[in-house]
Amino acid sequence: MNFPAELKYTKDHEWIRVDGEEATIGITEFAQHELGDIVYVDINTVGNKVAEGEVFGTVEAVKTVSDLFMPIDGTVLEINANLDANPELVNKDPYGEGWMVKIKLSKSADSLLSAEAYKDLVGA
Q1: What integer pLDDT is reported at residue 83 of this predicted model?
Q2: Which residues of 16-47 are buried (b: 16+ CB within 10 A; e: fewer)?
Q3: Does domain 8-107 have CATH number 3.40.1260.20?
Q4: 12-49 pLDDT tens trace
Q5: Each residue of 66-95: pLDDT tens digit?
Q6: Contact (CB, 8 A) for 94 and 7
Q7: Is the pTM of this model over 0.90?
Q8: CB atoms within 10 A of CB 62
Q9: What are the residue boundaries of the structural domains of the chain, listed by start?
Q10: Are 101 and 78 in contact (CB under 8 A)?
Q11: Is the separation of the CB atoms in 52 and 71 below 8 Å?
Q12: The Lipoyl-binding domain covers which part of the protein (predicted)?
């Protein structure tokens, strides 16, 4: 399983890639593996300020529907429109083309888990 070192992680299995004052967010390879085949992604929070721990959307898999939790306070700038027609991108490339949202950060992401800490959390 892949745990890119340049990313930060949450206990709820989201990842965040920080680039200055903006960040890209998605779900981890572990999460998509546990969910199974992703069939629908529902995110309609563009322009919204979303606090750390709040739900910013849902992901539907064959087995279940799961909430997506914001890893850090921020304003949603963009949603990955490619997921509307191709939700399976989350399974195929969770850290690349399967990203979910881009946000403007309201605070530092330093408090999130490192790749090693997340790896320990999921027992990998």
Answers
A1: 96
A2: bbbeeeebbbbbbbbbbeebeebbebebebee
A3: no
A4: 999 999 999 999 999 999 999 999 999 999 999 999 99
A5: 999 999 999 999 999 999 999 999 999 999
A6: no
A7: yes
A8: 9
A9: 8-107
A10: yes
A11: yes
A12: 22-104
HEC readout, the chain? CCCCCCCEECCCCEEEEEECCEEEEEECHHHHHHHCCEEEEECCCCCCEECCCCEEEEEEECCCEEEEECCCCEEEEEECCHHHHCCCHHHHCCCCCCCCEEEEECCCCCCCECHHHHHHHHCC
Dist. CA 40–CA 62, nearest whole Å: 9
The identity of residue 1, as a single letter, is M
Tokens for 18, please give them.
């920080």
What residues does 102 pair with on adjacent strands? Answer: 24, 78
Residue with structure tokens 């990955």?
A: 80
Return the residue matching tokens 């979303």. Answer: 50
Token readout for 88 is 């399976």
Buried/exposed code over 78-87 (b: 16+ C-beta within 10 A; e: otherwise): ebbeebeeeb
